[in-house]
User: Which sequence fits this backbone?
């Protein structure tokens, strides 16, 4: 009886020890595999970081170059806009609409003086019809050709010989009491 | 009996030896597992940090590429605008010397064109001379003269040597000394000697406006 108990006890201890050993060995192998996987991921991600850094540096350099070109162009554009009554340039349509929007004068002479002081070439325009005339300010824009505006109302006018003046205005219409069919347009620069 | 005891003792020694070896192995493996655990944690931390760095880099890259796109669009717009502006004509003008103005008028053929009340009147003469002068870089003004009768148009220059305005009748290139209250043709015009214009109450200068 004692012997049997001893033998069973020894067997139990041996089984227990084997189980512990087996479990710990598996755990160790699992951890080793996990560590290997993490090391592989680290290697890959370090590679990606290097590539992305490289690409980012190139992109930053490209962005700086484009910015430099942009600033150069803006400077050149600003130079083109510089002028005075002795050095005039033909404006863009946006230059004209900006000028008309900001200009508060209603007198054609003053409006022409102000435009020319800014270096903007413009014309004193007589739109003639049988019973009279209208005086406009005209600009020969580089992008839209000749454009005309009424100095009093800032309305844009599209005068055409043979057409009634009131039909040529872009703005609140007014009604002529006489024949205002346009007979000629004089641009005086 | 003694033999059985010997066998039992040897068996116990073997089992004990085996147990000691097993416990030692278990201890060794546990230590290794503990070290591996620490290393794995450390690697995890490093991996997370690298992921963050990579995410930041990617974020910066996206922002930079968006900047490039936006700036490129702006650049293209400025290129187009610059081309348009450079395609326009630039005018460099100067105020002429007195004789420069006279010489210009002498060479300008506008005064030789026949007058027509409808198709080529004073405004047309003034317009043509004014525009011809500016094409040659000479700054010229268009002058509206309100007479007691009809409105009249002439041209003018600012003389750089005389430091004053000089007026000319574009229909005949005669110099004009504009004075309010005087007869435009009879009093203000300076014709060649021996020539004169007749007075007309409709020709009195009421006022004049200069348009540059």
Assistant:
């Amino acid at each position: 009886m004692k012997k049997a108990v001893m033998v069973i006890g020894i067997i139990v201890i041996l089984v227990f020890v084997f189980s512990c050993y087996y479990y710990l060995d598996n755990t160790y192998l699992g951890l080793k595999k996990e560590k290997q996987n993490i090391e592989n991921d680290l290697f890959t991600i370090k590679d990606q970081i290097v590539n992305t850094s490289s690409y980012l540096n190139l992109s930053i350099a490209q962005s700086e170059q484009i910015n430099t070109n942009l600033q150069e162009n803006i400077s050149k554009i600003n130079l083109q806009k510089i002028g005075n009554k002795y050095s005039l340039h033909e404006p863009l349509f946006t230059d004209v609409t900006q000028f008309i929007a900001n200009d508060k004068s209603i007198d054609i002479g003053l409006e022409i003086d102000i435009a020319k002081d800014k270096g903007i070439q413009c014309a004193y325009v007589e739109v003639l019809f049988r019973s009279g005339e209208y005086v406009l300010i005209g600009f020969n824009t580089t992008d839209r050709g000749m454009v005309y505006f009424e100095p009093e109302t800032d309305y844009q006018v599209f005068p055409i010989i043979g057409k009634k003046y009131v039909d040529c205005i872009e703005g609140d219409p007014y009604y002529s009491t006489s024949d205002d069919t346009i007979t000629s347009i004089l641009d005086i620069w | 009996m003694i033999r059985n005891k010997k066998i039992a003792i040897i068996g116990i020694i073997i089992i004990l030896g085996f147990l000691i070896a097993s416990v030692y192995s278990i201890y060794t493996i546990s230590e290794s597992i503990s070290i591996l655990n620490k290393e794995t944690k450390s690697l995890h931390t490093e991996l997370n940090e690298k992921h963050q760095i990579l995410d930041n880099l990617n974020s910066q890259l996206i922002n930079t590429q968006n900047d490039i796109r936006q700036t490129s669009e702006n650049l293209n717009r400025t290129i187009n605008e610059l081309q348009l502006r450079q395609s326009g004509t630039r005018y460099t003008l100067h105020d002429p010397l007195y004789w420069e103005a006279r010489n210009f008028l002498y060479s300008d053929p506008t005064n030789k064109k026949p007058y027509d009340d409808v198709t080529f009147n004073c405004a047309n003469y003034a317009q043509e001379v004014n525009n011809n002068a500016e094409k040659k870089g000479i700054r010229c003004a268009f002058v509206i003269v309100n007479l007691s009768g009809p409105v009249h148009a002439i041209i003018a220059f600012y003389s750089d040597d005389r430091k004053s305005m000089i007026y000319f009748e574009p229909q005949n290139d005669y110099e004009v000394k504009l004075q309010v209250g005087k007869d435009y043709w009879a009093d203000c015009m300076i014709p060649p000697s021996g020539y004169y214009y007749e007075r007309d109450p409709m020709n009195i200068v009421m006022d004049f406006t200069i348009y540059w």
Q: What stands out?
A: The longest strand of chain B covers residues 151-159.
